[in-house]
Design goal:
InterPro entries: CTDL_fold (IPR016187), Sulfatase_Mod_Factor_Kinase (IPR051043), SUMF_dom (IPR005532), SUMF_sf (IPR042095)
Radius of gyration: 17 Å
Pfam families: FGE-sulfatase
Number of strands: 11
Oligomer: single chain
Shape: globular
CATH superfamily: paralog of FGE (formylglycine-generating enzyme)
Distance between the termini: 32 Å
Keywords: Signal
CATH class: Alpha Beta
Strand content: 15-25%
Strand order of the largest sheet: 1-2-5-11-6
Helix content: 10-25%
Largest sheet: 5 strands, antiparallel
Structural class: alpha+beta
Number of domains: 1
Protein name: Formylglycine-generating enzyme required for sulfatase activity
Number of helices: 5
Length: 269
């Protein structure tokens, strides 16, 4: 039965259609470049519709993007993985444990982590582009969340509809961050793409997708005044249901860490 599900997942990935069996039984090959490196999975190349016509103006215009294959962190970088490379953890929720996502890390500090990891492995680590991130989060789906159109604490760690508060409900046992991998993976074998901590991307923040790249690369500008606001994606433990949609985008200042923002790594093939 496992073999049948695995083959079905491969077919579905090729057609960019999601299926719950893939999320529960994903067996994507894991790439690990060193003992303290995050596990990565290879994301297949493909095209997808980015944004949401029903969402906010910053999620429009909806547009087609073609993304090349790349490696992406299977889970968010943990406190233990950060400490192994950087020497200490800045996390506000350190009591959650070493297997919980690192947070309170600024975009600039993340760049130093990626540089250190690149030196350690001889391979160039980076943050995913915003397009790569949404493509990976959707994993072939077109619904509001990778599991469907209705938010559910069975699939993600997120908060109440009141601003900025955690919520314990059903399988979501945590009022703040949860250990990575506490919920099922999407069809690409990625955990916690929605909820837990929001995730830094490489892109400068723009107020719409007008003139956005169509090839999956990070959207950067010659005008470096825009470099200090970067896109964060995925929502967090204190986000409402709207805040963890696959298309939801937000901005954060590069030098200002938050207890709701972490990251996952990416690497080109």
């Amino acid at each position: 039965m496992k073999k049948i599900v695995s083959l079905w997942c491969l077919v579905l990935s090729g057609l960019f259609v999601a299926h719950s069996a893939c999320a529960q039984g994903s067996s994507a090959a894991i790439q690990k470049d060193c003992d303290v490196c995050p596990d990565m999975v290879q994301i297949p190349a493909g095209s997808f519709t980015m944004g949401s016509a029903a969402g906010l103006s910053i999620e429009r215009p909806v547009h087609q993007v073609t993304v090349g294959s790349f490696y992406m962190g299977r889970m968010e970088v943990t406190q233990a993985q950060w400490t192994a490379v950087m020497g200490s953890t800045p996390s506000a929720n350190a009591t959650c444990g070493a297997n919980c996502p690192v947070e309170m890390v600024s975009w600039d500090e993340v760049q130093q982590y990626l540089k250190n990891l690149s030196v350690l492995t001889g391979k160039k680590y980076r943050l995913p582009s915003e397009a790569e991130w949404e493509y990976a989060a959707r994993a072939g789906t077109t619904t509001a969340y990778w599991w469907g159109d209705t938010a559910s604490h069975a699939y993600a760690n997120y908060g109440s509809e009141e601003c900025c508060e955690g919520l314990v409900q059903g399988p979501d046992l945590w009022t703040s961050t949860a250990p990575v991998g506490s919920f099922s993976a999407n069809a690409f074998g990625l955990f916690d793409m929605l909820g837990n901590v929001a995730e830094w991307t490489e892109d400068f923040y723009h107020k719409s997708y007008a003139f956005a790249p169509y090839d999956g690369r990070a959207w950067l500008d010659d005008d470096l005044r825009f470099q200090y606001a970067r896109v964060v994606r995925g929502g967090a433990w204190n986000s409402g249901a709207e805040g963890i949609r696959s298309a939801k985008r937000s901005q954060a200042i590069t030098v200002e860490p938050a207890d709701s923002i972490g990251f996952r790594v990416a690497r080109s093939l």
